[in-house]
Structures are given as C-alpha cells and as structure tokens.
Amino acid sequence: MELIMSHKTHLKKTLTALHIWAMGVGLVISGDYFGWNYGLITASPVIMLLVVAAVGLFYLSFIFCYTELVAMVPNSGGPFSFVSAAFGHKLGVIAGAVTLIEFLFAPPAIGLAIGSFVHYVFPVFNAVHVTVAFFIIFGILNFTGVAFAATLELIVTLIASLVLVIFFGATLPHVNIANILSSPALESSVFSQIYSALPFAIWFFLGIEGVAMCVEEVKNPEKAIPRGLITAIITLLIFALTVIVCSTGILPSSVLVSGNDALPKVLAAISSSDSWLTLMMIYLGIFGLIASFHGIIFGASRQVFALSRARLLPHSLSYIAPKLLTPVNSIILCCVIGVICALSNQTAVLVSISGLGAVFVYALSLAAFIKLKLAKKGAHEHSFKAPFFPVLPIVTVLLAVLICGLMLLADIITSLIFLAAVIIICIFAAIMYFVHKDKTIHEDLH
C-alpha cells in the first residue's frame, strides 16, 4: 500500500477520564484472559501470586510517578518524549525503540489468543489466519478516528470487565485453598521460579503506560489522566489476583499451562464444556482480548507517529488523514509488523519480548521523571503530584532495573532477540536523524 504524505500533524482532543480508565484497563485486560498461565510452567501458584502482588504494587507506585510525568510533558510520544526532554534525544531514541518493541510485539500475542478462542469454537478456522483477519479489521477500525476508537474501547472494556466479574462469582465458591498451597513438582529453586514468573506477572499490567500516547487527544488532561489511570491500575490489580486464585484454586497448573484458554477450562471444570458459563467465557471473553488488541494497536500507532514526527522514522508515517485526523500510515505499519510476528505462532516468546520492552520503558521513564522533577522542568503547572518524592520514584526505578536484570537472565535467547531489535531500530533512527539533521528533533517536544 502506498503511503501518503502530508504536513498536518495535529491530533483531535476528544477523550475524558472515563475513556482514560477504559483505555488503561482495556490495554491490559487481555492479560487476565491468557498469557499469565505460562508462568505456572516454572512457578508454583503461591510463587505466582506473590510475584503478581509485588509487581502490582510496583505498577501502582509507577503509575503515581507516571501520571505526574504525563502532566509535565503532555506529548503523544510517551516515553520517547519524556526521556528526550530529560536526557536529550540520544537516550530518547532508545526509549522510543523499546516502547515500540513493547507495543509491536504485544498485539500479535493477543491476536494469537483471539485466534485460539475462535478456533476453540470453530475448529475449521486456523488460529493464525484468524489473527491476520483481526489485524485487517482493527486496522481499518483505527482509521475511523479517535472518538470512535475510544468509544469502541470503552464498550469492549466494560463487556470484558463484566465477564471477569461473572467468572469470579461463578468460581470463587469452588476454590480449594489446598490446591493453591500445594506446590507442583518443580525442579527449579524458589529464586528461579520468581524471576521466570516475572514476564507473565508483568503481562497482567503491561501496556497501561500506553495511555500517555493519547495525551494530545485528551480534554482537560490534568484532571482526566490522574483519575483515569489510578482507577485503572487499582482495577487491574484486583482482577489479576482474583484470576489466579479462582483458576489455581480449581485446576492444577499442569492443566492451566496448556494453551490460551485457561479460563474456559476452569469454567468447564465446575460445570461442563458446553454449559452457558463456559460458552459465555468463550463468546464474550473474546471482548477482553479485543479491548487490549485494539488499544495497543492504537498506542503503537501513536508511538510510530511521534517518532516519525521527530524525523526518526520516515516522515510519511506522521501523515494525518484530513477528515478522520488519525495517523493512517502508522496504523498500517503496525498492523503489517503485527501480522509478520503472528506468523511465528510463538505466544510465550512474544509475551516475554514485549515484557522486556515494558520494564526498560519503566526504568527510563522513572529516571526521566526524577530528572525533570528535580530540574523543575515541565510544560506548565499541573495539579497532580506524585506522593513521597523523591523516595517513591527512586525505589521504583531501582526495582525496575532489578526486574530488567532478572528478566534478561531468565531467557537468554529471548533477551538476545529483544536487544537485536532495539539495536536495529536505533541504527535506523540514527540514519534517519542524519538524513534530516536540518530538521530539529526537539520540535516534537513542544
């Protein structure tokens, strides 16, 4: 498809606090439906619960800092813009690269889960082929404009949340605490279980920072973003812990780890495979996957848009459709890359790579927050202030660095793929920068 050129690079302000909540929860809620269960391959249910609780508290402290950071640098570039404002564009490019990797590798993983759900109901459909079809459908839907995209995200997020609440109500009475406390026969040590479970614990929350990439499209961002983001992370923490309890309290890990359909298996165990509960999870549970799939494509396209506007990717990618006011070429690119990644059919690897990108983003963003706050740099005065500064962000950034190290050690092959992708994007961005060095990169930050 030929890319179209234009100089118009301004987005339309449409979103409210409710949209921010829906975007925050919607970006992440697929993590409750699939992906997390792969952590049970190498970790016991108790270790998984403890790691998720610890990661959830990390995210809560991160979101407090991140919310103020978004108010200080209200730009659709997200971490790229934050880090560039704090440390200069060289480190900003690295932040942009790892953010791009996080948001490009997550949609194909979610798409494969959607394919698995559809294949479960209609075996005639190949899961990978369904994934490709969903990329085409939701690429087109993202063309239609931010108002429609945000409304769609709100609707599917509400449906996905309702399905989880019904799941909790149906399964909690059947939970056997002894099942959770009984550790499977794992060869790995407790320490090994902890760091191998990290990518899958992060999957419960991964992507919530993508809300920052729609900040230029938010009405009254100083009030809407804090309300929406903090409510979203609390919602997600409650969902994550309850999903693990309701699943591991009913079925053994050996059953839950096979495939992307853990929750339908749990409901089938307490009723039957053709009960209304199981069928509801299959038919309506797909909305949870769609919410994240749609939202992360939205976030990824805005990151590509910001890097293109800064002349670090081809400038045609920052084209804004005149009537729809959406970055159509960025959306096309994200969907094409997503399809290529989905063809690998390696869900666990895609989850791990996306998780690595996320924790690098968190470390860099928190460091930028500390630097900007100490330097008192910000676009304007903002009402929201993160509590316990500077202790909270310093402790949180140290935790992010620790998590980065543990995840890099957990899977060397995946880590090498991730680092290679970062290097390739940075080299390409450097080439683009020198080609367009007469165009200042800092124009994107104002």
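(the above was protein one; protein two follows)
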Amino acid sequence: MANYVYTMNRVGKIVPPKRQILKDISLSFFPGAKIGVLGLNGSGKSSLLKIMAGID
C-alpha cells in the first residue's frame, strides 16, 4: 500500500450555467513529489488548485 501525502478521487466542478470545467479528476502525490499544473487559459488550473487547497 502506498503512503500518499495527498489524494483526491473523482472530483469535478460545474460553474453556471451548467458548464463542467473539471470532470472525474483523481490525483495522488508521494512525499517529496514535485508537481506542475499545465493547461490552456480557462482550462481549470486555478479551480483545481483551489479545490486542492480546500478553498473551493
């Protein structure tokens, strides 16, 4: 069994009016992992990070 420092399973986000910007996202990070989030403008990078931080 792996010891992850962070895990999230099947996370999604819908913004008005019914626009799905994140769908079925699952992540697991090992201790000491270096993580990058890449994507086009408006692809949901900031939304993903806010969910991970517990802000959204």
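Reviewer note on protein two: Residues 45-53 form the longest helix (9 residues).
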